[in-house]
Specification:
Number of strands: 14
Strand content: 15-25%
Radius of gyration: 30 Å
CATH superfamily of the largest domain: EAL domain
Number of helices: 18
CATH topology of the largest domain: TIM Barrel
Length: 459
Amino acid sequence: MQLFEYPYIIITILVLCFIVLITIGIYFAIRGAKTAVGSEEKAFINISKLEASFEKSGKLREDRCVFYAKVSLDNFRSLYSAHQTMNVFSEIKGVLLEAFSNSDDSNIAIYGEKNFVVLSKWNIETARKKIENCFGELNKCFLKHSALNIIDVRIGVYFAFGTQVSFDDAIGRAKQAYLLAKNENVPYAEWNVSGGKELEKKIKIENNIEKEIDNNRFFLEYQPVLDAKTKKIIGAEVLSRLNSESEGVLTPGSFLSAVDSVGINDKFDYYIFEKNCKWISNDKKQREQYKYTINFSRSTLCEPQFAEKIIAIAQKYDLNFSCLAVEILEDKNITFDARKQMIDNLSVLKAKGISILLDDFGSGYTTFGDLQNLDISVVKIDKTITQNSVTDTGFIILKNIIRTAGDIGFKTLCEGIETKEQEEAVIKAGCDLLQGFYYYRPMPVAQLEKVFNNNSGGV
């Protein structure tokens, strides 16, 4: 019996010893990691000490500058493990410490989970140089981890030179500068009075934008589109305007970014589309003679139920599908799966008789790949190409775009025509449809109806 039991006892003892050694190793590894993290955290000054230093410098009328830095690892975390994310964040903190921690004229504090505040006595030139050097080191870190354009770090700067301002207000202005950097897609930005007021206005619009939709504060204007051969109006682009209670009448440049930031592109797009459909239905005999183009964000176009919702809205008002057109905005890039869904949606709409326009061809995310992959009706050529067509090189570029689109089977629309010379150039290049201030500016409904009455065009 002992001959059989003895080997198992030895094996059991060896396994237990192995487990004990592994446990001890894990314990010291965790302890070492905590010690390292603790040492790293201690290198940052406490935020209350930073505030006290700021207030003291203010009483002495010393120049001060405050940085607000924010690190976003969301995209990195979705691609890599939690352990890798923690390691790269530790390296980023090390870079920030090296760049901004100097006991004589600069200190840095952790402010929230992944935010940092820097207080320094640097002048503007030195501060800018320090920030540029910091981003140089950060980019090296990002390249090392294959995370360039994946990790987002931005800095807002407020210079409190000879001004009496509280620490909280200083951080608030640095945060505003950070938001400005984010909105303009630049690494860092500096606070100024005009920029601060503009940002406050933008934040106010964002906070109220959904309520503005719910309260039906938007109205529509229309910019006619003409046939290049007959110069008759065949339709119009639908343009939204916001009659804000606090800010007055706003154009899309002032509120579309708010719609996107809040994440209600779909709600806004369907709202404007239905608003236009309702208007057409009030005088179908006259208005259905023309084609109305409504802009849609690509994020809306990618929704699985997009085509179904558009068809349902048009049927709700008993409209002829041929008077409607969907314009694909070049507002953002999308994933392969989302693009496939968008292609399917647009194919369903086109089969129903709804025209599909590709916006701003030649700029942004709109490319020749869209011509190949999307089943569109009209290519809308960006106004910069239209306006450059009066030059020899610009004319050649425009002519080749129009020729390529025509060979595939698409019509072309040149937007942004503002002069007689531009009109002559785009017609000579073979453009099918025309739009721009040279013919009509965006106009309210009452004026559009007068223009329709004087026009014998239509689709």
